[in-house]
Amino acid sequence: MVQLQLGPSARRLSSRIKALVVVLALFLVVAILITVTSSTNGSPHGPSNQQQWKLTGTNLIDTTGTSYENLGAIDCLTPRECVATGNDQVGGLEYGIITSNATTYPKWTTATLPPQVGPISAISCTSLSFCVAVGSSPVVSHGYAGTYYPHGQMPQGVILSGNLINGVWLNDKLSPDLSFIKSVSCSGSHCVATGLNQNNSGIILEESESNSWHEVSTKGLHGLDQGGVGVSCVSSGFCLFGGDTSDPYILVSNNFGLTWSQENPGGIWGDPVFTLTCQSSTMCLAVGGESPEGVAGFTTFLLNSFDGGNSWSNVSLTIPSLPPPRNDLPLSSLNQGYLASVSCSSSQACMAVGQRGDGYPQIFATSDGSNWESVAVGDYYLPGVSCTTVNTCVILANNYPNGLLAVTYQLK
User: Fold this and answer.
1) What value does the mean pLDDT take over residues 205-216?
2) Which of 352, 346, 364, 156 is nearest to 273 (CA)?
3) Residue 119 to residues 166, 194, 277, Cα–Cα distance (Å)
4) In whole angstroms, what is the distance from residue 225 CA to residue 221 CA?
5) How far is CA 7 from CA 11, 17, 18, 35, in A?
């Protein structure tokens, strides 16, 4: 075998070529690292390739035939199968209203309800044929200087079972000593409702069989004074109930509301909590802020719990200053607002809606379960949001005098 022998000059040239190749290789590695780093940390709030919530549609909610509509609760099975509830003012009294687009998307149609059904405070659906709405008999309209009821007594509690396919809503049989039913959550065929009795004491109801409700024992439990801030149940049978006394109380059930245990998260709720939701038996969210009477000092907040409501932590929220504050209010007043509703399509994708301290709407959302960012929104009043499993959220938007809207956001 013949071997070639390189002279001194050839060997020096070979060494230089090797050194140049090494330098080029190092340069290439550094360039790749810089590209990867910039693509994952291009934003101070997280990865630039992280999905963003985008406005994808706005539909008018037609409530023709009603005189003064006020929708506050919404539940969506899919982005095109939603139902919203609230109240309608007729002759000085407020009657219930239920409207849905489940079989007529994008058109919303208003259901005919049984007589003597007043404001509907909450609704929960598990299928097109199984929905439960809760509220009371008609009450004197807000702002009227009088009693809750024309006869000077507390209104009767109301629970309706509904079918979104045929639009039929029927009264469930309830004890006459029940008054305002404030919240409801259903999973599968099980439902739990909370509210007040005629003595203004908090109660919890469970539906063990269709259209049959039973009051469960709450002896020794705290946080029921005003009927609570809400209840949320998941498929495992776990239910979380939020008390609304001056101290934060949490009630937990692991059998769809048949029995409850007490948890006290230890004072994290300094301001009023408006509602809560659970995505699983461990992951739950609660939102609130400024009281409806506008008491100064409260701040917009969102809390999360990863141990079934035993402990809660504040989520960092940055409230944008654009648009500028109304009425020349200082920027510091913006966080003296509230979040009225929160919903999740998964443990990572969630959205919360409410109002800033100056009255402008605000939306906060996350796509990774930890980083919450402000989402652009028009000039609406936002009372409710419902997110579906396809990472789409539908928001109730009252835009007086232009009407009621269903505003849809999707992760893109």
Assistant:
1) 85
2) 352
3) 22, 15, 22
4) 10
5) 6, 16, 17, 43
Quote the CA–CA distance of 77 and 126 in Å, as a whole number: 7
Closest CA to 66 of 31, 113, 26, 30: 113
* CA-atom Rg of the chain in angstroms: 27
What pLDDT, on the 0 to 100 scale, is given for residue 224?
A: 81
Tokens of 79: 């982005």
SS3 call for 351: strand
Contact at 8 Å (CB) between 352 and 287? yes
- Identify the three-state secondary structure at position 208: strand
DSSP 319: -
pLDDT at residue 323, as a whole number: 87
pLDDT tens digits for 221-280?
A: 877 877 788 999 999 999 999 876 556 688 999 999 999 998 877 666 666 788 999 999
67 token code pair:
């005189």
- CA-CA distance, 142 to 12, in Å (whole number)? 93
Helix (H) or strand (E) holding 96: strand 93-100
- Cα–Cα distance measured from residue 363 to residue 351, given in angstroms and rounded to the nearest whole number: 7
Backbone angles phi, psi at 331, to 5 degrees: -60, -30
Of 412, 406, 364, the residue nearest 391 (C-alpha):
412
What are the extents of the domains in the chain?
265-394+406-412
Question: Rounded to an integer, what distance in angstroms lies between the CA atom of residue 343 and that of residue 365?
Answer: 10
pLDDT in tens, 344-393: 999 999 999 999 988 899 999 999 999 999 999 988 999 999 999 889 99
The C-alpha atoms of residue 1 and residue 69 are separated, in whole angstroms, by: 98
Dist. CA 346–CA 281, nearest whole Å: 13
The pLDDT score that the predictor gives to residue 142 is: 64
Rounded Cα distance between 3 and 16, Å, is: 22
Give the mean model confidence (pLDDT) for residues 76-85: 96
Angle of CA points 74, 78, 81, to nearest 5°: 65
